[in-house]
Specification:
Oligomer: single chain
Strand content: 25-35%
Order of helices and strands: EEEEEH
CATH class: Mainly Beta
Low-confidence stretches: none
Number of strands: 5
Helix content: 25-40%
Number of helices: 1
Structural class: alpha+beta
Distance between the termini: 28 Å
Length: about 90
């Protein structure tokens, strides 16, 4: 099983065309967006404000904002449940 985390594109890096600065819950990271191209030199339909699904530093797909919010809510809920479980055992 792999976990994809939604992130919002903040900036496309002009000096590195396969990288974008992406915000995940306020944390900014450089993410490889090269897999989103149709071909090696093809156009990239991505701009600041778009949402992408990230796995181990690579953008796997472009997603809509509603899907991103739902995914973030789910991931946060899983983390909260795990933390609560640890607190009851500790």
């Amino acid at each position: 099983m792999c976990l994809g985390i939604p992130g919002e594109v903040v900036e496309l890096m002009a000096d590195h065309p396969d990288l974008a600065v992406v915000s995940v819950e306020g944390v900014h990271r450089a993410i490889n967006i090269g897999l989103l191209r149709d071909t090696a030199d093809g156009p990239l339909d991505l701009e600041p404000g778009d949402w992408i699904l990230i796995h181990v530093g690579f953008a796997l797909s472009k997603i809509d904002e509603r899907e991103a919010k739902d995914s973030l809510e789910f991931v946060t809920g899983v983390g909260d449940a795990y933390t609560a479980d640890l607190e009851t055992r500790g």
